[in-house]
Specification:
Elements: E1 7-11, H1 16-33, E2 36-41, H2 46-52, E3 62-66, H3 82-92, H4 94-103, E4 110-114, H5 121-126, E5 130-135, H6 139-153, H7 158-161, H8 189-201, E6 206-209, H9 217-223, H10 226-229, E7 237-239, H11 255-261, E8 268-272, H12 281-294, E9 297-302, H13 332-336, E10 340-344, H14 349-353, E11 358-363, H15 367-375, E12 380-382, H16 389-399, E13 403-404, H17 417-429, H18 431-451, H19 456-472
The protein binds uridine-5'-diphosphate (UDP).
The site of uridine-5'-diphosphate has 20 residues, from helix 1, helix 14 and helix 15.
Length: 473
Amino acid sequence: MQSTKPHAALLASPGMGHLFPVLELGKRLISNHGFHVTIFVLNTEASTAKNQLRDSPDSSLLNLVPLPPVDISGKVGPDAHIVTQLVVMMRESLPGLRSTISAMKSRPTVLIVDLFGTEAMAVADEFMMSKFVFIASNAWFLTLTAYFPTIDEMAEDEHIKEQQPLKIPGCKPVRFEDTLEAYLDRNNQMYDEYTRIGREITAADGILVNTFEDLEPTTLRALRDSKKLGKIAKVPVYTIGPTVRQLELPVMGNPVLDWLDMQPTESVIYVSFGSGGTLPAKQMTELAWGLELSQQRFIWVVRPPVENDVSGSFFTVGKISDGTPNYLPEGFLTRTKDRGLIVNAWAPQTLVLSHPAVGGFLSHCGWNSTLESLTNGIPMIVWPLYAEQNMNATMLTEELGMAFRPKASESSGIVEREEIEMMVRKIMVEEEGNRIRNTVKELKQSAHKAMEKGGSSYCSFSQFARECEISLK
Ligand code: UDP
């Protein structure tokens, strides 16, 4: 018998920052609307996805399907930019997606893809499915992505030649230094890929975006105004955020949580650069000094420094006398052991940020980390590394007032220890820190309101679910 509920298929790009929000979206479609959900992942992501779905609301409605493995070695060199590799992987996975859907007894009726999966919307057309894009970032980034093909068509490239901001009608311009690398070089393969993605987005039946109305009212108004954004504004935009990871299942005896349990309220700054980010070695040394000089409590998720900065034997990974990795200052672990915790590569971030002892987050401001901070009312120090993180940093500091941004020294190009010390003290103990803490607590309330029954994101999500139901009839 035909089910009366839509069957939504979600396609996730690789990388935790893409995978996690897609999985959360799938869980929400089940728990809020009783949809059947199939989540397609690349086979490299299958075990992470399975692990994340341990707490899914109703496993009888959820189907996790790893796609057949793909080999991209003949298509891109091993040195290609990570995003190029990712885009090619998604492209190569399309035949597997097509054959998998074709073999399914109960075919999905809706396909939801993320930013790097937009080419799969052609597969949705072949199977007469409705097709949506889920932008796991904010509306400002979505608008830039959707508008960039227009900039490209108008051959308006002063932003490249003159280092000018990118102007988007009705929105805050994107400063040259915040502009995604891909948009700054017409000869870069990523320029064409991002421009194509921008075009494909506007062919969707609708766009889901991980933001909420009160967070970005001006941008959202422009995005829906055809006088400003022409055909882009014709695509329905559903603000469904903040869709954040539910709390991870706590592990008994986790050393990070045990340590946090012993610290005073809002006394610890959490330092992390996302699921894979790290810093050049010299910058890591300065950060270590800055944390030490600040005299504040900290948890720092440390990964070895980026390789291109590894010069000579000093930075080869090893341990010095007290166990400190040799890209951190000698004796750092000993001197900070009473108030600092170094975590190797990965921390249970949702549990850390929701712990009452945490009072600040020094972050690369990936959008998931940002929303996790916001929904816990934690003010941030922003330290963007790549992708749209510079835009996020500008939004958080200049528009939302929930973060501070350290400045790199003009002579060395790195953020020096005195600046880091000053920032950490400012956020953790000074009046200005209190001010932004109050601001982010207000944002937390407004995020909560948006998600509860009758709130803007709740209603928008229900509207999207209704569209899927209508397309079923
Ligand atoms: N994360 C985590 N522990 C870590 C680092 C990251 O749980 O030590 C999670 C974090 O909670 C977030 C995701 O990984 O959900 C990172 O996504 P984000 O968009 O912030 O950054 P990306 O890794 O994509 O740059």
